[in-house]
Write a structure and sequence with these properties.
Potassium Channel Kv1.1, Chain A, three-stranded mixed beta sheet, 3 strands, single chain, about 5% strand, Bath-42 protein, SKP1/BTB/POZ_sf, mainly alpha, about 260 residues, 14 helices
Length: about 260
């Protein structure tokens, strides 16, 4: 099948899916109540998308007999967007920065997994904050939760820790553990860097055979640096005072991490 033919087939399939969904949604046989507001909806579409709605509208349930469902987790405006996104191959809305919080809460409550995953993908592109960490824990967003833990491990302030502790001791524990893991990794990296600097200083003080001329001495030092992945020139390698300054900076960094 040619590329153009495949595109026409995909377009036809998408349009057919939308017509099927439109036909399904056109049978608005139940009423959703949002306090003072209400809207009509298709029970078939809701049941197909959500196991929660499927259970509520099953045989013998009051909602199925009365054809009325109370929605307490969302406003009518937010639910209308959620409802539009239930259409197969929906082009009637999208998850964005302004609606992701509401859509996540609704999709999590009604167990609409594909929409919940879309919300997490959007959140993964937004800044990691304490609120996002708590939100990820509340709604079971594993990737977002781990990302926020790593981002906040060494940056959380006292007031942030207090908020987290008030919401969940489990989150606080996870954050403290992640912070310790990050500190340990940083210390290991610093140790390797300090060891490398020490070896550079020792090598620079080793005697060089007298039969080597100035150019050969420079090339020998350059080869050693290149093998270690260093980019110091000849003067820098022999400058012990600079080495001491670099070592002092590394040690100061270590002390800051240990505070």
């Amino acid at each position: 099948m040619s590329k153009d033919a495949q595109q026409r087939t995909d377009t036809h399939t998408c349009q057919r899916s939308e017509r099927t969904a439109d036909s399904m949604a056109g049978t608005s046989d139940i009423e959703l109540h949002f306090g003072v507001d209400s809207m009509r909806a298709s029970s078939a579409l809701l049941r197909a998308a959500s196991p929660v709605f499927d259970g509520m509208l099953g045989a013998g349930m009051a909602e199925a007999q009365q054809r009325v469902i109370k929605v307490e987790v969302a406003s009518k405006t937010d639910f209308e967007l959620f409802y539009r996104l239930l259409f197969p191959a929906s082009r009637k809305g999208k998850v964005g920065k302004k609606n992701v919080d509401a859509l996540l809460a609704i999709s999590d409550y009604y167990q609409v997994d594909f929409l919940k995953e879309a919300c997490e993908k959007k959140l993964l592109r937004l800044p990691a904050t304490v609120d996002r960490l708590i939100q990820a824990h509340k709604h079971g967003l594993k990737r977002q939760y781990q990302r926020c833990l790593s981002a906040l491990a060494l940056e959380s302030k006292a007031e942030d820790m207090a908020r987290i502790r008030h919401f969940s001791a489990d989150i606080l524990l996870d954050l403290v553990v992640r912070g310790q893991e990050v500190r340990t990794q940083n210390l290991q990296i610093l140790r390797l860097e300090i060891t490398s600097l020490q070896r550079t200083a020792v090598d620079s003080m080793k005697p060089v055979p007298s039969d080597l001329g100035p150019a050969s001495i420079w090339n020998l030092t350059f080869a050693k640096d290149r093998d270690r992945g260093q980019h110091f020139d000849d003067a820098t390698v022999r400058d012990l005072s600079k080495f001491k300054r670099e070592l002092s900076q590394k040690l100061s960094h270590v002390l800051q991490l240990l505070r």
